[in-house]
Each structure stands twice: as C-alpha cells, then as structure tokens.
Amino acid sequence: MGKPLIHWTVKAALTSGICDRVTVNTDDIEIAEAAQNAGAEVPFMRPPHLATNEATTFDVVEHAITTLKVAPDYIVLLQPTSPLRSGDDIRSAFALIERTGAPAVVSVSAFDKPWPVLRRVEASVLNPVPEPSRGAPTHQLNGAIYIERLQPFLNTRSFTPPGALAYEMPRDRSIDVDTALDFKIAHAIALECAGLFHDNA
C-alpha cells in the first residue's frame, strides 16, 4: 500500500472531519514518527506497563484520557489494522450515534462463513457451533470503528456497552490485517479501489 498501516488510519480520521484531535498511542518510535508524518499527534509514548499482552485497550484509552486531562463527549477508537475503513465510514458511524443517542456505535460486517461449516475445537474434538435463528442475518465486529460516549465507556469499561448500535461495512473494506496474507488481500483491494481511498492518501 506504499505507506505504513498507521498512515491510512490517521488520514481517515483527519478526513472524517469529526475529530477535534487525532492522537496515536504507541510504544514504537517508528510508528510514532509515521503517525506524526501523517498528521496525528503523539503527545506521549505508551508506558511499558501498558505495552504488554495483559494490558487491555480500555486500560490504554483510560490512561490517555487521564494523561491528557481531557473529558471528550465521544471517544473514537480506530485500530490501524483496518486500513480500508474510510473517512466516510467514520462520518456515517458518528452520524448514527448522534442521531439516535445510542451509547456507542461499532462497525460490523456480514459473517463470511455459513454456520453449518463452523466448529469449535475443544481438546482436539470438533464440536458444532449452535446455529442462530433460521434466516437471521449474522454479523461480526470488524474492528474498524468504535465510537462511544465518555460516561458509558467509563461505567462499563467496554467498547460495546448495552444498547450499542451497529454500523455495517462491506466485507471488502472490513479486512483486519493480522497476517502477511491479510496484508496482501488489503493491498490488492486498495489497488482495485484506488479512487475510493484517494482522500486517505
């Protein structure tokens, strides 16, 4: 995709026009520099105790709010592993939470596997996953957008509090880059839809 993953998320946040500040939280110097080059603030480096597998995203965001001494109306969490989410997606998700008064809006995509093929592996034994109501559409969190009002966030310590609404994104823009294969797929989609992501460049 020609640029670090963090670049695309910073640009999407900036072009969305809904964020008073775009800050990046990291313990990696190279990521911090790439984020600043893309236009984000990096007001501090993530402390070691929050750069562990035990630290939760809630812990990281709560620490940022406390350190920055801010009390925003909304928290917008955009993970860099979702580089194909656009500024328009963020705007639309924000419009949904404003219009409805919901405590939170999270992005989802249609589940891409038929339920009959799903199995849970427990002690090497394949067990069927209970099927949802017949005909009911199934979706999964795609990790691209979390928007939440401050108090529900602090009260529930969750980005998906009771009453959270879903903002559906198409599957081709819901790639979550966790592996080299995911990156290749995201890169191919970005090349195919270059015009769609022009504003994020």
TrEMBL record:
The record ties this protein, via Pfam families, to: CTP_transf_3
Q: Is Cell membrane found in the keyword set?
A: no
Cite the entry's keywords alphabetically.
Nucleotidyltransferase, Transferase
Q: Does the keyword Transferase apply?
A: yes
Q: Which domain of life is it from?
A: Bacteria
What Gene Ontology molecular-function terms does this entry list? N-acylneuraminate cytidylyltransferase activity
Entry-linked InterPro entries:
CMP-NeuNAc_synthase (IPR050793), Cytidylyl_trans (IPR003329), Nucleotide-diphossugar_trans (IPR029044)
The protein's name is N-acylneuraminate cytidylyltransferase
Q: Which organism is it from?
A: Ciceribacter lividus
